[in-house]
Design brief:
Subcellular location: Cytoplasm
Structural class: alpha/beta
Function: Methylates ribosomal protein L11.
Helix content: 25-40%
Distance between the termini: 65 Å
Keywords: Cytoplasm, Methyltransferase, Ribonucleoprotein, Ribosomal protein, S-adenosyl-L-methionine, Transferase
Number of helices: 9
Strand content: 25-35%
Largest sheet: 8 strands, mixed
Main location: cytoplasm
Protein name: Ribosomal protein L11 methyltransferase
Number of strands: 15
C-alpha cells in the first residue's frame, strides 16, 4: 500500500521534540537523514550525534491528511514549523529491493564475499558466505575491503591470527579460509561475538578454529598476524597493547582510519613495526607492517 511521507528540515536541537511529536500523532516510523552529506566520524562515548542540517522523515498511513499532521505539529510544539514537505510514496518489496543491490564481491586474487542468496561466481575460489548489512562489518566499507585485500595477499598457512574488534568475524573467518590454523577474535560487544560465531558456523569453521572473547577475558598470546579494523583514537591509545600481541617478525594490519589520521596512527606503531606505505581508498587508509625483532 502507499504511504504519506512527511519531511522536516531540522537542526539537531529540534530532533527529539519533533520525533516525539510525530510519534504522538500516529507516525509508523521516524528516520533521521543527513541533508548535506556531512560526515560524522568518531562520536563521543554514549552519544548519538546528528548532522547540523538533518532531514526528519516520518511515514503515515496513506489516508492521513498532511494538513492535519502539520496543524497538530504546530499545536504540540507551540512553534512555527521548519521547512516541511509531504508526498505520497508507493510501497514496494523493500527486502527484495535491498537484496538486489548486493552481489558477490572479490577482494584480491582469491577471496570472495558471497551473499547467501547468490551462487559463488568462482566455486573453486575462497568463498566466504556473509550477508551484507548494517551491523559489524560485511565487506562493503572501504576499511573492511582494505583489510580483506591485505589478508588475501599474505601467506597465512599454519598461522595464528588475532582479530581485534572482530565485529562480524569477517576478517578472522577470511584468514581461516585463506589457510590460517587458528584465529582469536575479541570485541567489546557480546552481540558481535555471537554474530562471529554464527558466521563461522555458516562457513564450516570448527569451534576449535575460532576462539572468541571479550577483551577482559582474552588469553595472553603473541599472534603471527594481527588485524584491527576499529577507529583511529583507540588504535593510537592501544598501540603498546596491540604491539605486545604480535610476535617478533609477525604481521600487523590496521584500518578504520581516515586519511587525515593516518600519519598519527602510523607514528604510534613506527617504533615497534617496520611499516609499509600507507594504502588509501575513498578517504580511508590501511596501515600495515612487520614487528621488529
Amino acid at each position: 500500500m502507499p504511504w504519506l511521507q512527511v519531511r522536516l528540515a531540522i537542526g539537531p536541537e529540534q530532533a527529539e521534540t519533533y520525533e516525539d511529536a510525530l510519534l504522538d500523532i500516529g507516525a509508523v516510523s521516524v528516520t533521521f537523514m543527513d541533508a548535506e552529506d556531512q560526515p560524522i566520524f568518531e562520536p563521543d562515548l554514549n552519544t548519538t550525534p546528528l548532522w547540523s542540517h538533518t532531514h526528519l522523515l516520518a511515514l503515515f498511513e496513506a489516508d492521513t491528511s498532511p494538513d492535519a499532521v502539520f496543524a497538530h505539529l504546530r499545536l504540540l510544539t507551540s512553534a512555527e514549523l521548519p521547512e516541511h514537505h509531504a508526498e505520497v510514496i508507493e510501497d514496494q518489496d523493500w527486502e527484495r529491493s535491498w537484496m538486489d543491490n548486493f552481489h558477490p564481491m572479490r577482494f584480491g586474487q582469491r577471496l570472495w564475499i558471497v551473499p547467501s542468496w547468490h551462487d559463488a561466481p568462482e566455486p573453486g575460489a575462497v568463498n566466504l558466505r556473509l550477508d551484507p548489512g548494517l551491523a559489524f562489518g560485511t565487506g562493503t566499507h572501504p576499511t573492511t575491503a582494505l583489510c580483506l585485500e591485505w589478508l588475501d595477499g599474505q601467506t597465512l598457512t599454519g598461522t595464528q591470527v588475532l582479530d581485534f574488534g572482530c565485529g562480524s568475524g569477517i576478517l578472522a573467518i577470511a584468514a581461516l579460509l585463506l589457510g590460517a590454523e587458528k584465529a582469536v577474535g575479541t570485541d567489546i560487544d557480546v552481540q558481535a561475538l555471537e554474530a562471529s560465531r554464527d558466521n563461522a558456523g555458516r562457513n564450516g569453521i570448527a569451534d576449535h578454529q575460532l576462539d572468541l572473547h571479550l577483551p577482559e577475558n582474552m588469553p595472553a598470546l603473541q599472534a603471527d598476524v594481527l588485524v584491527a579494523n576499529i577507529l583511529a583514537g583507540p588504535l593510537v591509545s592501544l598501540a603498546p597493547t596491540l604491539a605486545s600481541h604480535v610476535r617478533p617478525g609477525g604481521l600487523l594490519a590496521l584500518s578504520g582510519i581516515l586519511a587525515e589520521q593516518g600519519t598519527e596512527v602510523a607514528a604510534a606503531y613506527a617504533e615497534a613495526f617496520e611499516l609499509d606505505p600507507i594504502a588509501e581508498r575513498d578517504g580511508w587508509v590501511r596501515i600495515s607492517g612487520r614487528r621488529r625483532a
